[in-house]
Specification:
DNA polymerase, domain 1, chromosome partition, mainly alpha, hpI Integrase, Chain A, 304 residues, 3 strands, 2 domains, DNA-binding, DNA recombination
């Protein structure tokens, strides 16, 4: 039954990362309840599981966002199981996501303009520790990746899968295959265009020296592979983390949405289309101030 569900996700065009995430969440649920995927489960079982995640005996409570992600994985699984008559009853029917007054602002983190400028300086100056790595090649590649994530709002898997044929420099647009194999087109700003053109010129020089680059259809490659993997990109970005702020690829997508809302005077429909959000409620989260913004506002109170 579990393998049939995984096959269903693959047929729907879910990304490998999404499938792994769903599998991990489901396995965690089955293991902690000591059950099998085709065992009968009640809403009471799930509520007990939620309570245990909020009140663990020997560990820190899980974040609300993590619990809700796990619940979403269960919701998808049991919805499929009942629709395909694998099970008669859906135990998730009455289970709602947990609510928190500020969970959205806690999990959405973006870079300020000052932090972004500081990051570019770090990328330029950070020494290369890996033996045999061309420091200029790494700098140019990493910088181009940062700009594409920030100025086009790509997800990390979208960036990893981006091919040379997906970028049209003449028409200044990027073709992106997103979640569920949905295709969107994002215009290229003049700022991003200059960065992409510089990387393409340098990449062409590298293609003359390295066979795996010459044969690669992808825009970004690694030291030995024609494709820069999702994990490779994540590790690279984490290595540039700022003081007191760990960097993740998705943080640049948050930055794109936040900056774009400011640029469009909070036109969330435009930002929704550019970011490829299926639901406008996802985009509206960026209208909220971050926790640090709220803290700055409190510090600005009159002092007596």
């Amino acid at each position: 039954m579990f393998l049939a569900y995984i096959s269903f996700l693959q047929e729907k065009g879910k990304s490998q990362n999404t499938i792994i995430s769903y599998s991990n969440d489901l396995n965690s649920f089955f293991d902690q309840l000591h059950i099998k995927p085709d065992d009968f489960v009640t809403a009471a079982d799930i509520r007990k599981w939620i309570y245990e995640m909020l009140n663990p005996i020997n560990a820190k409570p899980l974040a609300i966002s993590t619990i809700n992600r796990r619940l979403n994985s269960l919701r998808s699984f049991y919805s499929w199981a009942t629709k395909t008559n694998q099970l008669q009853q859906n135990p998730m029917s009455d289970i709602q996501d947990l609510k928190s007054a500020d969970d959205d602002s806690e999990k959405i983190m973006w870079l300020t303009e000052e932090e972004f400028e500081n990051l570019l300086y770090i990328i330029r100056k950070k020494p290369v520790k890996s033996r045999g790595v061309n420091p200029e090649e790494k700098y140019r590649r990493d910088r181009a990746i940062i700009y594409l994530l920030t100025y086009a709002g790509l997800r990390v898997d979208e960036l990893s899968n981006l091919k040379l044929t997906d970028i049209d420099l003449d028409l200044k647009r990027i073709r992106i295959v997103g979640k569920g194999m949905k295709v969107r087109t994002v215009p290229i700003s003049n700022t991003l265009l200059a960065e992409i053109q510089e990387w393409f010129v340098f990449r062409a020089e590298m293609a003359k020296q390295k066979t795996h680059v010459e044969e690669s259809p992808y825009i970004f490659y690694s030291q030995r592979s024609p494709k820069f993997t999702v994990r490779g990109i994540q590790t690279m970005i984490e290595g540039y983390s700022l003081p007191k702020k760990k960097l993740t690829p998705h943080m640049f997508r948050h930055t794109f949405c936040k900056w774009m809302l400011k640029a469009t005077n909070n036109d969330i429909e435009k930002v929704r289309r550019l970011a490829g959000h299926s639901n406008i409620a996802t985009t509206s989260r960026y209208l909220k101030d971050s926790y640090s913004d709220l803290a700055d506002a409190v510090d600005a109170l009159p002092k007596f």
